[in-house]
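User: Run a structure prediction on this.
Assistant: Running it now.
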Amino acid sequence: MTQVPQTFLDALAVRTWCGLALRALGRAREEIDAINVYPVADGDTGTNLYLTVESAATAVEAVFAGYETGSGEPALADAVRAMAHGALIGARGNSGTILAQLLRGMAQALADAGDTSHIDGPGLRLALRRAADSARQAVAHPVEGTVLTVASAAADAAEGAEGDCRTVARAAYEGARAALAATPGQLAVLERAGVVDAGGRGLVAVLGALVEAFTGEAVREPAPRELSVRESPPREIPPQQAVSAPAPRSDGACGAAPERCADAAGTGGPAFEVTYLLEADDAAVARLRTRLDALGDSLVVVGGDGLWNVHVHVDDAGAAVEAGVEAGRPYRIRITHFGLGDVHTGRERPPRERAQRAVVAVVPGEGLAALYAEAGATTVLARPGEPPASGELVQAVRRAHAREVVLLPNDADLRHTTAAAAEQARTEGIRVALIPTRSAVQGIAALAVHEPGRRFDEDVVQMTSAAGATRYAEVVVAERQSWTTAGICQAGDVLGLIDGDVAVIGADVTATARTVLDRMLQAGGELVTLVVGDEAPETAAAQLEARVRESYLAVDTVVYRGGRQGALLLIGVE
């Protein structure tokens, strides 16, 4: 749809820009994934950028939704803050994390402009410069020939442009295009592969969307020949040549030990990508940067005001997470194994063989994520109040890299989201079965009977049967006064929910859980599963185990630590 041209940046232009950027990255996603050889040739830069912008666009839409019943529209500051925050919490991969910081830098510059409904050309010039500078500062070891170079070139070109926002945006876009074309001459791994930088290509798409938001006219996107610096396919790189090349490090970062990544085309890169959101103060984050820089490479830490997005490549994933725990409160922890070191090669390689079958599960806490991962599942961590989007689930299905996938939502509220993700994955040729698990304890029961060697349909039937035979409960604290099926509860009351309905209202966590457990076991059972959250009383699990042992002689109990899972306790009875 043609946009109405305008000469200034206001909240509506921010909304339009986000939508157009998402559309542009959607068109270019596969193309960008295909040219992704640096810092790790894992073919996901386009997808990561798309998911990052999707989160930003969703946050902006939420701000506008608050004005639908009233009059007017959000202030510019509200819109850009929402855009930056959405990108921060949804940032994926190295390039997505850097893009989040670019948007945050712009938001900070626009906030400095004061309480204004819009900014003009000079204001946009300042915002683009602040964006480029803040992104470069967020990267531990900036490298030229990456998205950082493209961002700086865009800001430089914008500073030389006189006029309104249309003129400034177009200058920034053209400067970025020129810088993108030059990236193979700055990074040897790009030149050998015959491609431009994938992250920089994504930024060009985002800046092109900005031009379109102001002018109403689509820009000329880079032609395929501009993405490749030669006609022939990438040649095989002899091992000795790969190791002896210069030492670049990440979409902007490689760490403090060049010998660990003598080249992005070498085979000695770290085995894991670790990302998480972190609640911490500035001093703790400064210490965290130093520690993570010593642990690995590709370190990017973005954010501020108490909330940060941390990205690093390491061999010791546990140490990277522990460093986050020492600095503050990490959550949405994602650990990706690059697999046999082959994604650290900058050369063409045979595609990794797909597994026959995999399980993808949504889990509410870090402890359960580790438990499910040990059982072989690919996990998506869901923070209370922040359920995963369908795009995140589709990405997890792709990451599982299997011909057949069993999807466990583990939450009744996710049934539509997981159904949409399953349908999307099916269009990509993946056979997906959705088991409607409503709790993580039902997912545990399903995993316990999962046998990849069985026929797919038979395996799904057995997993579905095990999940359906598991009654589930949770113990939570009421946030406000409300009507429930057990009566009126007050804020602070302890609630025991059985199969999704409030069954018990109490004042003590352990006593309420004991009542819930007794009611569930009245109908019989052979195994009780207890998943204990971080905020549950330390003695709760032991007391409940004792209750089962003393009163239900034929029933076994197993206890897991769920971490920050929202509920104080999850209970399953099979």
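Residues 229-267, 340-350 have pLDDT under 50 and may be disordered.
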